[in-house]
Design a protein that fits this description.
single chain; alpha/beta; Rossmann fold; seven-stranded parallel sheet; 8 helices; 15% strand; binds NADPH dihydro-nicotinamide-adenine-dinucleotide phosphate; binds 2-hydroxyethylsulfonic acid
């Protein structure tokens, strides 16, 4: 049966791949992002197999999120699956050197935006006693690395918020999953390095990083499980990446 799936951050990377995978299954899609022209291009490609509704939305804008969800057309209103994917890292500086605006943007997008979208859609899911919230976390939420400071902390929020939602939703049929990927090649690093495409390419060079399709595959896996089953958390990395122990800084003398 065709489901209604809302994907945040569908204009690029994971969100775009996730949209393609659901469209191939014939599900109805609400695609959201700020760059509407990219969404329009994607709709032109996908509407041969799926019904698509576009929303130009900045998830940081609490009122806009509430308004957009409240004014969904009737045939898209009963959202079955929310993919909270919109997010970003900005910078890789040590905490004492970062631009505070970057910290604000990451918190506003990765934590507050994700919470706004969830809060807007949950009441309908609970009322229908059906639904699935899939939150895109990160291995940066579990493993510290230099320069991850607030980005990693926002993704720890995503993992704990997901677990806490499960507690609140106990007794309903609404499911919650956190998918925490490691290194995957998308526009993520171009954004992190403020459009320095060369630095972004160097970050992925020779790594056989995961692809957006790998993450989309995990999203399809968790959402295709039978209704009695909840996948709580998936952590995934390329084989070339691992947490390799604690680092020791040794003084010169
Ligand atoms: P991309 O930069 O390719 O995509 C990010 C998406 O988020 C874009 O569609 C962008 O759309 C959207 N977005 C960013 N800010 C906002 C906003 N304020 N409002 C609405 N949409 C927004 O990166 P990825 O696909 O790699 O990242 C997707 C998610 O996966 C993020 O949450 C990221 O933290 C997470 N992640 C990424 C990993 C990686 O290695 N790539 C690993 C682990 C997690 P637009 O700019 O048009 O608004
Ligand atoms: C992005 C993965 O390892 O670049 O969330 O922090 S990593």
């Amino acid at each position: 049966m065709s489901r209604i799936v809302l994907v945040t951050g569908a204009s690029s990377g994971f969100g775009e791949a996730i949209a393609r995978h659901f469209a191939a299954k014939g599900d109805r899609l609400i695609l959201t992002a700020r760059r509407i022209e990219r969404l329009e291009k994607l709709r032109a490609e996908l509407e041969v197999s799926a019904k698509i509704h576009l929303l130009q939305l900045d998830v940081q804008d609490r009122a806009a999120v509430a308004k957009a969800i409240a004014s969904l057309p009737a045939d898209f209103a009963e959202v079955d699956i929310l993919i909270n994917n919109a997010g970003l890292a900005l910078g890789l500086e040590a905490a004492h050197r970062v631009d505070l605006d970057d910290w604000d943007t990451m918190i506003d997008t990765n934590c507050k935006g994700l919470a706004y979208c969830t809060r807007a859609l949950l009441p309908g899911m609970v009322e229908r006693n059906r639904g699935h919230v899939v939150n895109i976390g990160s291995t940066a939420g579990s493993y510290a690395y230099p320069g991850a400071n607030v980005y990693g902390a926002t993704k720890a929020f995503v993992a704990q918020f997901s677990a806490n939602l499960r507690s609140d939703l106990l007794g309903t049929q609404v499911r919650v999953t956190c998918i925490a990927p490691g290194m995957a090649e998308t526009e993520f690093s171009v954004v992190r390095f403020k459009q320095d495409a060369e630095r972004a390419a160097a970050f992925y060079a020779g790594s056989d990083a995961m692809t957006a399709d790998d993450i989309a595959g995990a999203v399809i896996y968790v959402t295709d499980q039978p209704a009695h089953l909840n996948i709580n958390h998936i952590e995934m990395m390329p084989v070339s990446q691992a947490s390799a122990g604690l680092t020791v800084h040794r003084r010169d003398s």
